[in-house]
């Protein structure tokens, strides 16, 4: 009898439950979304699980725990209650803090979402704090919980894949030797080796490349310029005002004389005054 159907895609949260199904050799069908999925999971989130008698699960940690418990011999959940709680702690921490912060940084860089430098810088700073928690634990221990491999390592390593895909280049790996060593150890385990054994590490982190701007079409030639009106002569405020016109002589008001004055003078000077000059 089938143990159920696991809906998993290429999204990184699908990797751990998919690997566990194969590791435990469960009779679980692993498939992409179909009509049954869309009918039962309206939020369209991956992974999802449908079991016998209408049993349904969403949320990756819940699904992974259910798959682990399907094998009573599984030792991936710790050897006691304290370790079990720590397994849940690390898995939850990776799911809610590590993966979303990685996405906040690399998605604007690879063009999946609009680029925002402030968002990327803030995300990078917080991501460094989150990774610092792993780095501190792994400085003294090989695994996240106890002294052996647990689901916490499997799930956290699968989530770290996105960071190593886009952000954690050679310089980063040198600065975080404990996390890098642990990641290489976990992806080489039989549970993840089939999916990540040939994993290729990047040399440099992805960088934002601004999209090329389309060249604007050349504007149509401008219309002919209108003839400019002649400029008015500027008034020199410092120049002296023109002199007032001289007043007219009072005799000018009488108009021009009708007699020819020059002719009268000539006659008066050369002729006899009584007889000719003064008729």
From TrEMBL:
Recorded GO CC terms: cytoplasm; nucleus
Region named Disordered: 212-257
Domain of life of the organism in this record? Answer: Eukaryota
Transmembrane stretches in the record are none
List the InterPro entries hit by this protein, alphabetically: EF-GSTs, EF1B_G_C, EF1B_G_C_sf, Glutathione-S-Trfase_C-like, Glutathione-S-Trfase_C_sf, Glutathione_S-Trfase, Glutathione_S-Trfase_N, GST_C
A molecular function (GO) held by this record is: translation elongation factor activity
Q: Which residues form the GST C-terminal domain?
A: 80-206
Per UniProt, which keywords does this protein have? Elongation factor, Protein biosynthesis
Q: Which residues does the UniProt record annotate as the domain EF-1-gamma C-terminal?
A: 247-279
| Bias-annotated ranges (Basic and acidic residues) | 212-235
Q: Which family does it belong to?
A: Belongs to the GST superfamily.
What PANTHER family does this protein's entry cite?
Answer: ELONGATION FACTOR 1-GAMMA
Q: What is this protein called?
A: Translation elongation factor 1-gamma, putative
Q: Which organism is it from?
A: Candida maltosa (strain Xu316) (Yeast)
High-level lineage: Eukaryota, Fungi, Dikarya, Ascomycota, Saccharomycotina
């Amino acid at each position: 009898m089938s143990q159920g159907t696991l809906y998993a895609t290429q999204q990184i949260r699908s990797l751990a439950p998919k690997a566990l199904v194969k590791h435990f050799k469960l009779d679980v069908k692993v498939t992409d979304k179909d009509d049954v999925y869309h009918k039962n999971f309206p939020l369209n989130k991956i992974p999802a699980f449908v079991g016998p008698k209408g049993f349904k699960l969403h949320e990756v940690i819940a699904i992974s725990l259910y798959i682990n418990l399907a094998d009573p011999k599984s030792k991936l959940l710790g050897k006691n209650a304290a370790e079990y709680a720590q397994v849940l702690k690390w898995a939850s921490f990776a799911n809610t803090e590590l993966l979303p912060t990685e996405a906040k940084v690399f998605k604007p860089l690879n063009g999946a979402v609009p680029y925002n430098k402030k968002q990327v810088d803030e995300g990078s700073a917080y991501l460094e704090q989150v990774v610092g928690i792993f780095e501190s634990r792994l400085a003294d221990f090989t695994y996240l919980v106890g002294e052996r491999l647990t689901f916490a390592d499997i799930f956290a390593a699968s989530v770290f894949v996105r960071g190593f895909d886009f952000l954690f280049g050679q310089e980063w790996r040198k600065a975080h030797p404990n996390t890098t060593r642990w990641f290489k150890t976990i992806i080489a385990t039989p549970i993840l080796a089939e999916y990540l054994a040939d994993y290729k590490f990047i040399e440099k982190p992805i960088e934002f490349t601004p999209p090329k701007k389309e060249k604007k079409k050349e504007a149509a030639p401008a219309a002919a310029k209108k003839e400019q009106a002649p400029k008015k002569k500027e008034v020199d405020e410092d120049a002296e005002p023109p002199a007032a016109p001289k007043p007219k002589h009072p005799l000018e008001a009488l108009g021009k004389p009708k007699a020819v004055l020059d002719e009268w003078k000539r006659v008066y000077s050369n002729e006899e005054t009584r007889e000719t000059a003064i008729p």
